[in-house]
Amino acid sequence: MSIRKLDWAVTYSAVSGKRLRNEYETEAKARIFAERAAIRAREFGLALPVVKKLKSRRWEVGYQDPEQKWKTKRFNTKGEAEEFQRDLTKSVRTGTYVDPRSAAGLTVAQLYNLWIARIESAGASGRRPATPKTVQGYEWLYRRMIDQYWGRIPLSNVKYAGIAQWTQTMKGVDGQAASGDTRARASKQLSRMLDYAVSIRILGANPAKDPAGGRDYVPLIKTERKPVYLTRSQLERLAACSGGHELLIRFTGLTGLRWGEVSALVLGDLDLGPKPYVSVSKAYSEVRGRLVLGETKGHESREVPLPGSLVGNLVDLVEGRAPDALLFPSAQGLPMRNSNFARRYFGPATRLAAASVSRVQSALGMSETRRGLAFFGDLTIAALTGFQYDLELPNQGSVGFETWSALASQDGIADVLRDELRQSAHIVLEYGDMDFRPPVFHDLRHTAVSLYLSVTKNVKHVQRIAGHKDATTTLNTYAELFEDDFYSAANGLDRLIGG
After folding, report:
1. Residue 350 and residue 340: Cα distance in Å, rounded?
2. CA distance 263 to 294
3. Rounded Cα gap, residues 82 and 60, in angstroms
4. Angle 366-367-368 (CA atoms, 0-180°, nearest 5)?
5. What is the pLDDT of residue 44?
6. pLDDT single digits (tens) 148-159
7. Is 430 within 8 Å of 358 (Cβ atoms)?
């Protein structure tokens, strides 16, 4: 391996007429080559060679690759050439050498095709193919966010500074500045692609990462929305507002199944014997507008116990139906779609159930809150019982059908509030009830986990029910639910005195 300083260049013509250039360390070597080239030029009637001193010094590293082929690479400074020489020597000795020209011969678009084929066939880990929905997400990010900027760029031209600038100035599909979440996901995917290039010996190192393996240009993503954990009574209130889907809401809020899993259940997945449970082994995902039946998110089947309060309803639901019939079908008997269900049923149900206490207080002309949410406490019950006493309503101290009707019949109530009071007639509210932030369907899964953790501290059991890969995932995901234990543990130490 050698380093040469190139100060002189000879420009000459090939027989085809194409102009070529050779570079040399000394003027003497350049003149010798120029004299030979001049003889050939006169013989074929070509332009005579020209010898020039280079304005900026160029440094060339000559080396042999592991196949003993002689190669050269040029640099603008001696320091760059020496750094390349050191890294090359180290990579050859450790067996991690990668031909620099391999990156120059492959574009980012060509790398993406190799990478996505790997994802589809073996997944990122190499253990199992990625789900169609996961592949769809990768494809969307590449086509919308990566391809236009990087697709035609050779891998040898992909640099850390360029990736940092792209990430920080990325535009969304609408031409406006992309959100922090989109920038972080697109940048992470490009880095994963470059990691794959390293693994297949196209790149010697990932240019998306600094020497320590970090990516300080990626925006920090703060989760804007916190999960909603419903109490048992709040879950029942939400179920009561969901019309014909009451059992689906209660079932999901007490088993913790994901939407794709619960929508794929068939009657044969239920065992309603002495120890009732539901077997979860498959899930629907929506890919390019089509529902695709595949594995669960964790790629493993599991059994989830069923509380007795669900079993009676499920026995009635199963009776007289085929084992392969969907447990919760659409009105047409087909698998339900999450978007349709959320828009038509779940959204209206949450809006009605989440603000029911506040609705009563508005009709009574008073307010009582706890942690910023309407609370059915002493102030509310005092105003409510006075109202009920004057009208001689039954079940004083709680809100049922008669009280909802009476509240809606008052003079001076706004029409919108009057309609909402009438729609709430099937809700029962009692002392201690509280409003809640409107949940999304996935919050029913969070609710089930929180309810299980409230009755058992065996995280391994909850992990199995939730279908997490390991208990660490459960602990990390639901760490906030253990805050009370954090302080009660210190108080518990006092009980050990004299034990």
Report:
1. 15
2. 12
3. 10
4. 140
5. 85
6. 999 999 998 999
7. no
Cα 271 to its chain centre, rounded Å, is 33
Task: Please give the structure tokens belonging to residue 373.
Answer: 């949410």
| Spans of all domains in the chain | 2-65+84-94, 103-199, 356-423
Q: How many CA atoms lie within 13 A of 402 on its CB side?
A: 12
Distance of alpha carbon 453 from alpha carbon 355, whole angstroms:
26
331 CB-near residues (< 8 Å, 6+ apart)? none
pLDDT in tens, 419-435: 999 999 999 999 999 99
> How confident is the model over 351-379, as pLDDT tens digits?
999 999 999 999 999 999 999 999 999 99
Tokens of 438: 């409107």
Instruction: Report the distance separating Cα 360 and Cα 143, nearest Å.
Output: 51
- pLDDT tens digits, 400-413: 999 999 999 999 99
Q: What would the 3-class secondary structure string for the chain be?
A: CEEEEEEEEEEEECCCCCEEEEEECCHHHHHHHHHHHHHHHHHHCCCCCEEEEEEEEEEEEEEECCCCCEEEEEECCHHHHHHHHHHHHHHHHHCCCCCHHHHHCCEHHHHHHHHHHHHHHHCCCCCCCCCHHHHHHHHHHHHHHHHHHHCCCEHHHCCHHHHHHHHHHCECCCCCECCHHHHHHHHHHHHHHHHHHHHCCCCCCCCCCCCCCCCCCCCCCCCCCCCCCCCHHHHHHHHHCCHHHHHHHHHHHHHCCCHHHHCCCEHHHEECCCCCEEEECCEEEEECCEEEEECCCCCCCEEEECCHHHHHHHHHHHCCCCCCCECCCCCCCCCCCHHHHHHHHHHHHHHHHHCHHHHHHHHHCCCCEECCEEECCHHHHHHHHHHHHHHCCCCCCCECHHHHHHHHCCCCCCHHHHHHHHHCCCCCECCCCECCCCCCCCHHHHHHHHHHHHHCCCHHHHHHHHCCCCHHHHHHHCHHHHHHHHHHHHHHHHCCCCC
